[in-house]
Write a structure and sequence with these properties.
Elements lengths: L6 E12 L18 E2 L1 H15 L20 H8 L9 H8 L3 H6 E6 L6 E6 L2 E3 L2 E3 L6 E11 L11 E20 L5 H7 L8 H17 L8 E11 L15 E2 L8 E4 L1 H8 L5 E8 L4 E4 L6 E4 L1
Helix pairs in contact: 1-6, 3-5
Length: about 300
């Protein structure tokens, strides 16, 4: 069934002695004022990984894969592998239809440029799901680096140290709570599905259910060495009524984390979000809050919001 309602929401990712999203030096990313942040790609990656691992019948296109020589696919390689029957296709409608068969493109959109000797194909898909950078809302931004030892020596080392094992370095954030805002607007996909023609896949209720599950569990599920200690902590999911044209403000400005914990749990104040939601209650169908009750407590919850554990 086609999904048509708009959604506003927020996700908090907790990182304790972990590195949710490193820069290319290996350290947690920081804003010019020293506040730690993560790009939208970090959360999208966790969502895509969760969908790829748990829904094997769904195609996830924009995800790193390797060929038999352990070389990452090019864009053309990925398309030829996903759609071998259309690997030399030049018809934009057919290619667009293929792209819309991929759940990550139906959710997040894509910029696709397929090169050909005779006819290049460029297609832009405006994704319904938009996610902002996640900024740490905990009052501290303390991270550290530590040396680690490799079990192997470097045979190319020209100094006398070439007989010793090599040292590396890793960085971790002591504690952070990254807050991402997101929105879902199914109308973003209407133009491309119309151009793709009959039988082109649209955003479905099943897609949204899978997205919601991935935003609740995806980071916790993806347990790499650097991300051990990162987990989904909270998800706010506000569904508007079908006819609503309401535009809500960015939720990152409406959710405040207090400086002191209570009983080992961080305290999240939703008073400003409560005001924004209750001022537009006639436009809102439902408000759902899912949280890790072992690590976070919420205050000033909007009226009639349902609360459940992640």
């Amino acid at each position: 069934m086609t999904y048509s309602k708009r959604i506003f929401g927020a996700a908090i990712i907790k990182a304790v002695n972990a590195n949710y999203n490193a820069d290319f030096s290996g350290q947690p990313r920081t804003l010019p004022n020293g506040v730690v942040y993560a790009t939208d790609k970090a959360l999208k990656y966790a969502v895509k990984n969760f969908l790829k691992e748990n829904y094997i019948t769904e195609k996830v296109f924009y995800f790193k894969r390797f060929n038999e020589d352990f070389i990452p696919y090019s864009l053309d390689d990925a398309f030829a592998t996903a759609f071998p029957e259309h690997k030399d296709e030049k018809d934009k409608k057919i290619i667009a239809k293929d792209l819309l068969n991929c759940i990550d493109i139906r959710l997040f959109g894509a910029t696709f440029a397929k090169k050909s000797k005779t006819n290049n194909v460029a297609i832009s898909v405006h994704g319904p799901v938009q996610i902002t950078h996640g900024v740490n809302i905990w009052h501290q931004n303390n991270f550290y680096s530590e040396q680690i030892m490799s079990p192997f020596r470097n045979p190319n080392e020209k100094s006398e140290d070439n007989a010793a094992t090599t040292l590396g370095r890793q960085s971790r954030l002591h504690e952070g709570h990254y807050l991402h805002h997101f929105s879902v607007n199914p109308k973003n996909l209407e133009d491309i599905t119309m151009l793709a023609g009959k039988d082109a896949k649209e955003l479905s209720t099943d897609d949204i259910a899978k997205l919601k599950e991935a935003l609740q569990k995806g980071v916790t599920y993806y347990d790499s060495a650097a991300k051990a200690g990162c987990e989904n902590e909270l998800l706010v999911w506000v569904t508007l009524k079908p006819e609503s044209k309401l535009v809500l403000p960015n939720f990152t400005q409406l959710m405040k984390m207090e400086k002191e914990k209570f009983d080992g749990k961080v305290q999240l104040d939703l008073s400003e979000l409560k005001i924004a939601i209750e001022a537009n209650v006639a436009e809102i169908e439902s408000v759902e809050i899912s949280l890790n009750q072992a690590s976070i407590e919420v205050k000033n919850v909007p009226q009639n919001a349902s609360i459940k554990s992640l």
